[in-house]
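Please review this one.

:::
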Amino acid sequence: MNKLTEPWWLFTLKWHLWRRFKGPRYRVFRDFRNFVRNVRPGGLMIDCGANVGDVAALFAARGFTIHAFEPDPDARTMLTRRFAGYPKLHVHPQAVGTAPGRFTLHRKTGGVEGTISSSLIARDIHAASEGIAVDVIDLFAFMDGLGEPVDVLKLDVEGAEAQILERLLETRYDRRIGRVFVETHERFSPEIAASIEATRRRIAELGIANVDLDWE
């Protein structure tokens, strides 16, 4: 089966098995599914934390140009192979943040396809010997440099989303993006949890409707 055109039932099954959601989580999946089905074809997506490309594949099937950021070399190898026949997806080896730099990417040993876990934040699952140095770019400078509006931004960046979201709201960059889907990682630390909670309150206060922090 061509992984760029895998049917929705297979994506749904993967989602169920991976997230094991109930109740409100089904609404999240349903809304995301409907968004992808109805989104304008041929748009521009930035996939931050692309992993092996399961989400990117849904937008590739809609003819999107995709900039996929994946700093983990194992995940990136699978991502590159998967989209070798799709020239509109551009793979970037950097991590994303709010300022350029070079940091340690902490990696999990013994990862398997689709479940590779790497993060700029060290966690119990990471082996100390598996850290590698990676470049981090300023995501907002990158988007400015594209010279065209971003239709979809997906953030699954293992805790780094907290600072990115803070800057998104500070600059009101949300008004320059069609839709933002974020997987939040409050469980990583009290600081991240507090930042995400403040972001949720700010989104509600401003009446922002295109930033989804419940996507996961």
Residues 185 and 198 are 14 Å apart (CA to CA). The first strand starts at residue 44 and ends at 48. Strands lie at 44-48, 65-69, 89-92, 95-97, 101-107, 118-119, 132-138, 150-155, 177-182, 211-212.
